[in-house]
Amino acid sequence: MGPANKSQTSPDTFLLMGIPGLEHLHVWIGVPFCSMYVVAVVGNVTILAVVRAEQSLHEPMFLFLCMLSVTDLVLSTSTLPRMLCLFWLGAHDIAFDACLTQMFFIHSFTAMESGFFLSMAIDRYVAICHPLRHSTILTHTRIAKMGASVVLRGVAFFSPHPMLLSQLPYCRTRIIAHTYCEFMAVVKLACVDTGPTKRYSLSVASVIGSCDGLFIAVSYVLILRAVFRLPSREASLKALGTCGSHVCVILVFYSTAVFTFLTHRFGHNVAPQIHIFIANIYLLVPPFLNPIVYGIRTKKIRDHVLNSLMVKVA
């Protein structure tokens, strides 16, 4: 039975609809989503274990990669298990407090993901453009401060989201037309003017996303300029290959984020199935791709994993 026909078990309970119009495909949609989640968890846990075990990997690039891996694990785990319960078990009910908690983790850790992408871009810029000063510029203390500032920014700017929604009255339907508790999907259910609340959310998201995206773009432009000046063609191609894969992951993250933002702001005629599907891609694909691009394609991590596997087989 669909969520629209279910009675509310509690005034503090919302009902997640899933993907409207595709309810009959929920079971099959859950299969690739589950596969991506498994790869994301295994890949990111492997990166954390390898960097922790290998002293030679305690470098800025890998320390930032560990921060990104933790962010990916929290981001995917805060959405995927609950989403799979919806797809496979028909568990539409979600408590109001659980909904707000999920919302906080999604939005704050998405902002952290963006911040760690920027931190990694800065690290690559310093490593390629100022290689002799890399270790003196990005010391462990400075790396810790950069990581802490990214976390504090995400928490500070998105803590008001659940607080604002907890103060609103909900006298309309309690059916959330989404697969998870997205801020805009929940705020639509309030029966008062939510214009200021929506503007705050969109403003924070646009400022953080645009600033991070701009600085990342500037970093990679400077990196490319330095790469093309390298005397060795082989070194240039290797650097371009590494930067190219990184840019592809970043583009997936920011392109889906921009689509979601523009849909909320202007895309009132966009089909809800498309909007929700892109919103899911926005949350699921980066945690799936990051360990592949930043982990498997990184020689030091790949060699350590292969050596460990060979030792166990032997």
Automatic annotation (TrEMBL):
It holds the Pfam family 7tm_4. Odorant receptor. GO terms for cellular component: plasma membrane. Keywords: G-protein coupled receptor, Membrane, Olfaction, Receptor, Sensory transduction, Transducer, Transmembrane, Transmembrane helix. PROSITE patterns: G_PROTEIN_RECEP_F1_2. One of its GO terms (molecular function) is olfactory receptor activity. This is G-protein coupled receptors family 1 profile domain-containing protein. It is a multi-pass membrane protein. The keyword Transmembrane helix applies. Gene3D superfamilies: Rhodopsin 7-helix transmembrane proteins. It comes from the Eukaryota.
